[in-house]
Amino acid sequence: MKKLLMAAMAALFCQLATAVEVAGVKFEDKARVGNGDLLVNGAGLRKKVFFQVYAMALYLPEKSADSEAVLAAKGGKRIAITLLRDLTAQQFVEALQEGMASNHSEAEMLGLKERLTQLSERMLAIGEAKSGSRIVIDWLPDSGTRLTVNGQVQGKDISGEDFYRALLRIWLGSKPVQDDLKAALLGKDS
Predict the structure, then answer these.
(1) Which domain holds residue 107?
(2) pTM of the model
(3) How many domains does the chain fold into?
């Protein structure tokens, strides 16, 4: 009986040791994206004024604390977001669009416009995202940017690695949506 209890405690410890937790949301240390395994690079909390908006994690093929290296890295990537409050799809889309515009010139935004519209339309079709909703944005080198909401893939993958990098710049760019969230995603504060 004692050995069984010790084994259960060891298993529990291993399970706890393999997850990163932010504001009560657990993110696994590893994720499988396409044919590749990714590691959690960092995780953090998006706040607006004093509200907790979402917890998120960034997954990469190998860890990096350098935002430019992350943006240039080859291979699959994942942004995992869990909402901590109810949002309309419109609110989420506007935040994504603002974050992109803050980190790109008008000319760059023109080149991204059609694909940003595709992503926005998919998000708007959802209508509302309740607290606890899980949004995953994957980069699959063979097919593009894949949006998954609560385990359901939303539309076709969006082509172009430049588009995925543009999304990453919302959190990792020169004008990130939140400085301490950028640091956390780069593993500097998680």
Answers:
(1) 21-185
(2) 0.86
(3) 1
